[in-house]
């Protein structure tokens, strides 16, 4: 038997032969295989390993159409939260330099920002996180396979390297956590050939220069905001409303502030063509639906921020019976993150009806691993999850927008409390605070349950976390006057 096993090992190592990792007993090689090395997938894998289970992670980054690629960690680490917040911070520092003069600092004018210095620092930090994730997997004895994963059958995953080497692994449980990628408007001539997305922006070595950002999503406004903040000529083209799905009064305040600080907006416009000029600049043609006219301008960079699509095309989900939403392409899961196939689960941005947020993916991944291997029954609570849009003046919210509350309960059954405020740090610098605003959407019934809280101002991301905890734990029902609550909130922000 030992001789036969050694012969089998030699055969498996021969060039051109498919490597199959399957125990001779017929049992599955792994207790858990995770397809996708983003925040949710890594959290699930590491948590499962804590229970002494044999775990593997497959992760492969398909280069963007412009050839951009990155390492382990998924969207948030490489082309999302982390680089975005660091570049947002770079823009905030630019504003702070202007404020500093009012506080006695002598700042030589004009102030100049060097993209390459910022980009190198951000990219180096991201690479350190890539390496850190690999070390953590190794420390927890999680097998990391830099391969594109797809299903052969409900218990079998086919891994394929960049060089075309194939590995077949089997698992008792499989978690899909491949996330999403930016959409390209392929119906627009030149969009794919000449445009970039957020997958590329954060890895540019040189400044994007004069930039057109197409889209009204949070990705669009966040990127346009920090590009303007570091001194670049930036235009946002929006076909319809900004920040669809968010409270529209708050969304309008966000865009008003951006306009007042230099970001240009082409509203109710949509591009029809992108052409490359001899100067290497990009000529964009668009239609203005309000005026019924066709207009053009040239830019150094055109960035598409028109939505994201789940990364499911190469998974072979249809062959194993995993059901997806035909319109969105996202995987349908139940409250326990289970798909339509037993022992196959999905978490994060790839799942239907879940918030596309890193912290929720991480929490869902950990809880799933605990239910599978730790004798836990706790489910992920997706209600009242706070979120923040990192525009120059941040917007944080938790719960329902005013529009959603009116739709759910009827406009006559909701009460909206609101207040403008001026942050103390705006006073000496004489900064405009006309868009610093908060609102609370409540039911009109006697208990006046809070349905949503919305806040625009500095550090909204930090502020909203505390109030989200309050809404979930303490303020879900109030018997006292809510006006007192807002007065207290305003006092705290201005002190």
Total beta-strand segments: 22
Going by CATH, the homologous superfamily of the largest domain would be FAD/NAD(P)-binding domain
Strand content: 15-25%
| Tally of helical runs | 15
> Which CATH top level class of the largest domain fits?
Alpha Beta
Largest β-sheet summary: 8 strands, mixed
Q: Overall pLDDT, averaged?
A: 91
Which structural class best describes the helix and strand composition? alpha/beta
Q: What do we call the CATH topology of the largest domain?
A: FAD/NAD(P)-binding domain
Low-confidence spans: 1-25, 475-481
Walkthrough of the structure:
There is one protein chain. Strands 1, 2, 3, 4, 5, 6, 7 and 17 form an eight-stranded mixed beta sheet that branches. The protein folds into three domains: 241 residues, FAD/NAD(P)-binding domain (3-Layer(bba) Sandwich); 116 residues, 3-Layer(bba) Sandwich (FAD/NAD(P)-binding domain), CATH 3.50.50.60; 102 residues, FAD/NAD-linked reductase, C-terminal dimerisation domain (Enolase-like, domain 1, 2-Layer Sandwich), CATH 3.30.390. It is 34% helix and 23% strand. The longest helix is centred in the first third of the chain and has 25 residues. Helix 2 packs parallel to helix 11 and helix 4 crosses helix 5. By secondary structure, the protein is α/β, with parallel strands linked by helices. It is built from 15 helices and 22 strands.
Give keywords:
alpha/beta, FAD/NAD(P)-binding domain, Enolase-like, domain 1, 3 domains, eight-stranded mixed β-sheet, 22 strands, globular, disordered N terminus
């Amino acid at each position: 038997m030992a001789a036969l096993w050694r012969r089998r090992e030699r055969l498996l190592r021969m060039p051109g032969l498919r490597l199959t990792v399957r125990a001779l007993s017929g049992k599955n090689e792994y207790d858990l295989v995770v397809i996708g090395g983003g925040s949710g997938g890594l959290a699930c894998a590491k948590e499962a390993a804590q229970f002494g289970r044999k775990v593997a992670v497959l992760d492969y980054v398909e280069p963007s159409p412009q050839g951009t690629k990155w390492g382990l960690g998924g969207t948030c680490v490489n082309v999302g939260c982390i680089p975005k917040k660091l570049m947002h911070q770079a823009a905030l520092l630019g504003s702070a330099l202007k404020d500093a003069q009012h506080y006695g600092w002598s700042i030589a004018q004009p102030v100049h920002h060097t993209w390459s210095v910022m980009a190198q620092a951000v990219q180096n930090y991201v690479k350190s996180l890539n390496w850190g994730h690999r070390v953590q997997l190794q420390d927890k004895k999680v097998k990391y396979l830099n391969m594109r994963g797809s299903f052969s059958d409900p218990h079998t995953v086919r891994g394929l390297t960049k060089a075309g080497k194939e590995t077949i692994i089997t698992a008792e449980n499989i978690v899909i956590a491949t996330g999403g990628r930016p959409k390209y408007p392929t119906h627009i001539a030149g969009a794919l050939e000449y445009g970039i997305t957020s997958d590329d922006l954060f890895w540019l070595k040189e400044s994007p220069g004069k930039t057109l950002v197409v889209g009204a999503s949070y990705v669009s406004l966040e990127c346009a905001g920090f590009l303007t903040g570091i001194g670049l000529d930036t235009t946002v083209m929006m076909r319809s409303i900004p920040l669809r799905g968010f409270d529209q009064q708050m969304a309008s305040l966000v865009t008003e502030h951006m306009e007042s600080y230099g970001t240009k907006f082409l509203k109710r416009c949509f591009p029809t063509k992108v052409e490359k000029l001899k100067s290497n600049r990009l000529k964009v043609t668009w239609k203005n639906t309000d005026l019924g006219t066709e207009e053009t301008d040239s830019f150094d960079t055109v960035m598409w921020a028109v939505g994201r699509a789940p990364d499911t095309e190469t998974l072979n989900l249809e062959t194993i019976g995993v059901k997806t939403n035909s319109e969105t392409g996202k995987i349908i899961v139940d409250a326990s993150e289970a798909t339509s196939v037993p022992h196959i689960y999905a978490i994060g941005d790839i799942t239907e009806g879940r918030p596309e947020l890193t912290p929720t993916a991480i929490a869902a991944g950990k809880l799933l691993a605990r239910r599978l291997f730790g004798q836990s029954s706790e489910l992920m609570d997706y209600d009242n999850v706070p979120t923040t849009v990192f525009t120059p003046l941040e917007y944080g919210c938790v719960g329902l927008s005013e529009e959603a509350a009116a739709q759910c309960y009827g406009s006559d059954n909701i009460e909206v409390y609101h207040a403008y405020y001026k942050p103390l740090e705006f006073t000496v610098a004489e900064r405009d605070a006309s868009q610093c605003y908060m609102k609370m959407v409540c039911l009109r019934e006697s208990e006046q349950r809070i349905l949503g809280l919305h806040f625009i101002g500095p550090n909204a991301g930090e502020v909203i976390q505390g109030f989200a905890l309050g809404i979930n734990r303490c303020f879900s029902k109030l018997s006292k006057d809510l006006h007192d609550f807002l007065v207290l909130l305003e006092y705290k922000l201005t002190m």
